[in-house]
Amino acid sequence: xxxxxxxxxxxxxxxxxxxxxxxxxxxxxxxxxxxxxxGDEVRVFVTKDGYAAYIQKIEP
Length: 60
Prior knowledge:
By secondary structure, the chain is an all-beta fold. The chain contains no helices and six strands.
């Protein structure tokens, strides 16, 4: 999925997806992250159990 990071909380990211829906994406010690901060556009790959496998920052 693609979207914009709205906020980063302790163990989850709040993402606004392209349809305008806010999604809560859980992260754990296995989640890879590119250092995205609020306002960055990202691509998120989610595992079958609902955790982020990879949060990839999309460079403009």
